[in-house]
Amino acid sequence: MSVQTTTGTAAETRHDDSGRRPARRRGGAVRRAPWLLLAPFLLLFLFTFILPIITAIGSSFVKVSRSGLFGEDGVTSRFAWFDNYAKALADGNFVASIWRMFLFGIVQVPIMIVAATVLALLLESASAKWPGLFRAAFFLPYGIPGVIATILWSFLYVPGLSPIIDAAKWMGLDVDFLGSGTVLWSIANIVTWSYTGYNMLIIIAQLKSIPGELYEAARVDGASPWRIARSIQIPLIAPALVLTTVFSIIGTLQLFAEPQVLQSVAPAIDSQYTPNLSAYTTAFSYNDYNVAAAQAVLIAVVAFVLSFGFLRLTNRKSS
Amino acid sequence: MAPFSRRQVLGAGLGSAALGVLSGCTTPGTTSVNAAPTIPPAHGETVKLTYWSWLKDLQKVADIWNAQHPGVHVEAVWIPSGNSGGYPKMYSALAAGGGPDIAQIEMRTIPEFMLVNGLVDLSRYGAEKHADKFDRTLWNQVSFVDGVYGIPQDSGPMATFYQPKLFAKAGGTPPTTWGEWAELARELRRRHIYIDCFPLSDASVFCSLAEQAGARWFKPTNDGWAVNMTDPATMRVAKFFDKAIDDDLVTTKFEPYSPGWFAAASKGNLASITSASWGDALIEGVSGGSGKWKVAPMPTWDDDGYGSSQLGGSTAAVLANSQHPKEALEFAVWMCSSREGIDALITHCGIGWSPTPDYIGAPRQKPSKFFSGQKYNEKVFVPAAKQQNPDWSWWPITQQSFSILSDEFRHKASGKKLVDCVAAAEKHIMAAFKDKGLSIRKERA
């Protein structure tokens, strides 16, 4: 047992060789060790993850009401069952924001995953020049925080500042990146730009784990690079594709920084444009933490259902 | 140490979780500090006051006070501005039973803080005797029922900032009425210039314009709030801007002081902006704008309403958990109404319009190079500050109300009329009041 050298002192080790009783004590230490080592993580996990979730669920069932002009005649809070959930779901803007993200996800996630896969395959192909340089270049946008990325892009979207709009006007085109119909896709563009390289890296990692013999065998059989990609690489990176897609589905529902920052230049983005923005507004502008908690729980449930639905779908396909 | 069993760990986890749920359920702010006896002023010991504010270099102002008042030491702490993080911070500090002695709170947010029992009623500490040092309109906005809940710190009387050369191109001078404004706007449009923008996503500007026309949206009465957002004054403004937007006299593509606005203003595609006094500092950011701008009184409704209006403005309010409300009040009054306090606030913090009618601050008495050498503060804003709607009062869910109204206004882009947007918003706002348990009724006009 290698644990002996790591957990026992020299004296203990000597005892251990001689009898059964110390062996049981050593067993205790062995049992304790993982908990001790895990303790810092578990504490953090408990206080910053589990506890907030439970608090949020708890507060989503409470309703606070005030009476008088400014609540001076008393404030009462009571257990409200699903009132807050009903209120969140009755809020047309909140439900609309979920549908909006649904539309966003259906378009943006496939585009991004396909782009990431194509980039990964190109960089991992035998004829790629300077793959390291390009890998870093494609990954670079992920290193820029979403807030900064949005500020940068907003200068390309704002009429009067944007060289793209000026160039389009030159050619007689009138483009409006921030209109009510287009701004969602302007956000999709920022998100795609930021995360394609990140997803590409995950796919490359899996591509690298494909054993060389498979390629050799395929080449001996006379397979073209296209055939290799289709019949070997894509099936073998399927787990990475599933993983990146699930991450992207969850990320879509949590979209927050991009629309919030873009709000200052795009009047079409309202205070409840995405589900997370809606929960934020409810909590911090409306001071209604209970309904915000209900919204947060609903967002989590939808993200859970969608990502597990997707996993079920892909599992069934592969089995 | 005994090993933890999985069950023990789980048990401990659930136990502390249950504790979290319980503490999440207790509602902070259920008791009012204003029902408790007043706290007498401290004797002998040095009193320490903290002041949370988003003004830069506020400590330099506090240091002047500290040098003169060895018994009361004020420490300024910078926080993010109200809606971008300052208020949530204050709310959570209040909920936890702490917080600073003084906090910067916007005029319109005072009632929201009253809703969580977050403010000290300063009339119990003798605030009334300072009332005559402050602008009457502003004092009315911090006074509710029988109390005073903040000391006005700055305000934003409104006027029109304009580019004389662009106005001259259309053969015009600053319009004195909204009717003239619309005519000039039409002439400017022939030369591809907008007279101004109309922000659909920030309803507070519309609110200020309605205020000028004589609206009073909310009134606290004995049996709850009375609301009237569809009174003739508001409807007049809504109809006017419905037409202005439909006729393409104003642009709704960008908000005031956004990057798009600055681009249009510096390229000469935007001739003017009707905004608050604090707009001067922002307009000075228009590149190549020096000497090209001037200030004129805002247009009026010739037969009705007021000469000017107000946009923005904040207070120094004493928060509920302060142990030294009396000293905090004295400092706030000194800072906001004494000559040295006002001058220091302007020099170090670049604060908005002075809340006292008698003194606008030494730096504001000089002519401005950027604004064509005009002494616009004395010529335009001093009278404007006296011509505001004195009856206006704020209500407990202003932030939510402005969000609701802005969200409605966004429908204007798809053809809805502002007139209908205001009416629809009023219904939503009334529902939000009732949702909080507050009583509200529609005022019969």
SSE arrangement:
The complex is a heterodimer of chains A (319) and B (445).
Chain A: H1 3-7, H2 10-18, H3 21-59, E1 62-66, E2 75-79, H4 83-90, H5 92-124, H6 131-139, H7 146-157, H8 163-170, H9 183-208, H10 212-220, H11 225-236, H12 238-253, H13 257-262, H14 275-284, H15 289-318
Antiparallel strand pairs in A: 1-2
Helix pairs in contact in A: 2-3, 3-15, 4-15, 5-9, 5-12, 6-9, 7-9, 9-12, 12-15, 14-15
Chain B: H1 6-25, E1 47-53, H2 58-68, E2 72-78, H3 86-95, E3 102-106, H4 110-115, H5 136-142, E4 143-144, E5 147-148, E6 151-162, H6 164-169, H7 178-190, H8 203-213, E7 218-221, E8 224-227, H9 232-246, H10 259-266, E9 272-276, H11 279-283, E10 294-296, E11 310-318, H12 325-337, H13 339-349, H14 376-386, H15 398-409, H16 418-435, E12 440-442
Parallel strand pairs in B: 1-2, 1-3, 8-12
Antiparallel strand pairs in B: 3-11, 4-5, 6-9, 6-10, 6-11, 7-8
Helix pairs in contact in B: 2-13, 8-9, 12-13, 15-16
Structure notes:
The complex is a heterodimer of chains A (319) and B (445). Chain A is built from 15 helices and two strands. Chain A is mainly α and 319 residues long. Chain A folds into two domains: 58 residues; 233 residues, MetI-like (MetI-like fold). Chain A has a two-stranded antiparallel sheet with strand order 1-2. The longest helix of chain A is centred in the first third of the chain and has 39 residues. Chain A is globular. Chain A starts with a helix and ends with a helix. The N terminus of chain A is likely disordered. Chain B is of the alpha/beta class and 445 residues long. Chain B folds into two domains: 220 residues, D-Maltodextrin-Binding Protein, domain 2; 204 residues, D-Maltodextrin-Binding Protein, domain 2. In chain B, strands 1, 2, 3, 6, 9, 10 and 11 form a seven-stranded mixed sheet that branches. Chain B has a three-stranded mixed sheet with strand order 7-8-12, with helices on one face. In chain B, strand 1, helix 2 and strand 2 form a beta-alpha-beta unit. The longest helix of chain B is centred in the first third of the chain and has 20 residues. Classes of the chains: A mainly alpha (319), B alpha/beta (445). The interface between A and B is large, with 53 and 61 residues.
